[in-house]
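Narrative summary of target 7.
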Amino acid sequence: MEGLEKAINKLTEKLAESNIDSPWLNQQEAAAYLRMSIPTFLKGRFKSHNLFEKGIAVERWNRNELDQEMLKR
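Modeled conformation, tokenized:
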């Protein structure tokens, strides 16, 4: 199971490195998108999506949801 998790994480990293125009952002990308430091971004408690219950260590934020949330604030 550990090997599968490593393979999935490696695939996730490779996909993140590609230039696919996706609305899904990692923590660093989401903070930069909102022009915030990572600690400030984390204090904002923006809704994230993850697959932790499936054993996949990936957490992403949706650009469209971040836009909507910022409009509310």
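Residues 2-72 form one domain.
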